[in-house]
């Protein structure tokens, strides 16, 4: 029988993370392989996060949240991802919106309060739905095909979104769309998931993060109130979220894949200790070849920790924050690939978690900003600094 969900009082104190997080990591890891194999959403993980009071961790204190800083959010996301990374990805989307809600001038006060209240009381989840079949990621420019038509009774939204992470268990969608004006406004429209006309097509059958329920969401003339147009503005206008959003996104997103690499490293170390080939008569961990390889892995993970901690403290910004995301992700992928090379067939068998970690960690390259954008921006900044 499920334990009752603990109600969370407004502006409650931060839970004892050192006591809670190891237990959550273990619980999430215990079911991660099953969710991966079935491509099933880990709803129980979010019940546990709700009970622990962690679903409104970054929400403003005046709205009842804990208003945790980025280092605290990093600590939680890393622990969750070490157990089950799809859970962490949905949680990151939640944390990013909650942390930036005060800086989004287009959000009416009553909607801010409602979104946060429902997260605290009922475990409601929110995410942005931005990617479309023809356009791809909006980070590379272009107008969305999803249309919001202004009518006397409200906005009517029609379109299709793909890769909608958490789709089946979200309460709120922030739908990236354009208005039907002669000069369209582009932005996010807040849509409750149970609104008539919202259809989820379960299309997600991916190599990694299979538990993320990143299905297609179709909007068929969905009606929302006029004040649910959160931040529409002319194409090319500055982003409506605060400047800190980019650093938060880079740190928390890459932290997911760093945590996957750490889980892979831990499995590798245990495997090398336990594996005792008959012709060797000793553990593989006694061989210098494996000791050196694990040392290289720990060096990469140390670099990641320094990068993430430095960025979380606000000591890098702009282009450097994006570089942190790129470097941490690539280091994480290298760690898991090294582990696979060391283990051979045992690492690739589905009876062991390493092949799952490999599939999951590769998804890190997909997230915005992608490598070519990051590196080109860094190169331009380097040349510009010399020219000035």
TrEMBL record:
A Pfam family annotated for this chain is: Acyl-CoA_dh_M
Any idea what this protein is called?
Answer: Acyl-CoA dehydrogenase
Q: Which residues form the Acyl-CoA oxidase/dehydrogenase middle domain?
A: 132-222
Which coenzyme or cofactor does it need? FAD
Could you name the domain of life of the organism this protein comes from?
Bacteria
Q: Could you tell me one molecular function GO term of this UniProt entry? A: flavin adenine dinucleotide binding
Q: Does the keyword Signal apply?
A: no
Protein family: Belongs to the acyl-CoA dehydrogenase family.
Source organism (scientific name): Caulobacter vibrioides OR37
């Amino acid at each position: 029988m499920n334990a009752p969900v603990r109600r969370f009082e407004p502006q409650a104190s931060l839970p004892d993370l050192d006591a809670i997080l190891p237990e959550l990591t273990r619980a999430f890891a215990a079911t991660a392989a099953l969710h991966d194999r079935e491509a099933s959403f880990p709803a129980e993980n979010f019940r546990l996060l709700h009970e622990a009071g962690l679903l409104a961790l970054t929400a403003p204190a005046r709205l009842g949240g804990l208003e945790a800083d980025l280092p605290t959010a990093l600590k939680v996301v890393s622990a969750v991802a070490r157990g089950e990374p799809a859970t962490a990805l949905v949680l990151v989307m939640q944390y990013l919106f909650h942390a930036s809600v005060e800086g989004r001038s287009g959000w009416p006060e009553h909607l801010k309060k409602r979104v946060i209240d429902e997260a605290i009381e009922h475990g409601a989840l929110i995410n942005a739905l931005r990617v479309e079949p023809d356009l791809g990621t909006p980070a590379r420019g272009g107008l969305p095909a999803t249309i919001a038509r202004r009518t006397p009774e409200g906005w009517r939204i029609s379109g299709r979104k793909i890769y909608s992470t958490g789709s089946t268990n979200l309460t709120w969608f922030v739908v990236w769309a354009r208005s039907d004006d002669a000069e369209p406004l582009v932005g996010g429209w807040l849509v409750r998931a149970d609104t008539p006309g919202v259809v989820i097509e379960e299309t997600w059958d991916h190599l990694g993060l299979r538990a993320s329920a990143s299905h297609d969401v179709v909007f068929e003339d969905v009606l929302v109130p006029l004040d649910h147009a959160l931040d529409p503005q002319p194409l090319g206008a500055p982003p409506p979220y605060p400047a800190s959003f980019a650093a938060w996104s880079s740190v928390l997103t890459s932290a997911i894949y760093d945590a996957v690499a750490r889980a892979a490293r831990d499995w590798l170390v245990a495997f090398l200790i336990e594996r005792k080939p008959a012709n060797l008569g000793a553990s593989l961990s006694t061989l210098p070849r494996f000791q050196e390889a694990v040392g290289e892995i720990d060096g990469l993970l140390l670099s990641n920790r320094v990068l993430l901690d430095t960025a979380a403290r606000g000591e890098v910004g702009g282009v450097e924050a994006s570089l942190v995301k790129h470097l941490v992700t690539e280091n994480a992928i290298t760690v898991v690939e090294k582990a696979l090379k060391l283990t051979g067939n045992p690492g690739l068998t589905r009876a062991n978690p390493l092949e799952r970690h490999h599939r999951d960690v590769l998804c890190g390259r997909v997230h915005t900003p992608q490598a070519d954008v990051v590196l080109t921006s860094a190169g331009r900044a380097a040349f510009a600094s010399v020219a000035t």
